[in-house]
Amino acid sequence: MPHKFFTLADANRTLPLVKRIVQDIMSVYPRWKDLVAQYELIAAQARPDWGESQEQIALKAQIDTVAAKINGFLGELEEIGCEFKGFDLGLVDFHGRLSSVKSCGAGSSAKTGLRTGMSWRRDSRAASRCPKS
Question: Exposed (0-12), middle (13-18) or buried (19+): which is 114, by Cβ within 10 Å?
Fold first, then answer.
């Protein structure tokens, strides 16, 4: 899916909604990690010829439920046009273009909890596609 390009004003207007969605992701993700760790611990102690225990099956169902929630939140960010960059920091990219042709590879990132919320950075991959002047 092609990226939506945001102006700084558009990204700033979208930021409150994006922040709520990222907070939802960040609140559910630790639960998913804990469930996966529990499943792996139980699976490591089991013998393959035993098959999955009822506890493993129940944990797998819980993992799938939490994963579906996370995927729903990620889908919301995709619909907005943002790109979620990772669960560790809750970083989201807003792709954008500055008005100058030489700056066609600009983008911005927002991290939940940051006071400023937006920082522009030059994307070196896109800069290589900028027209030469």
Answer: middle
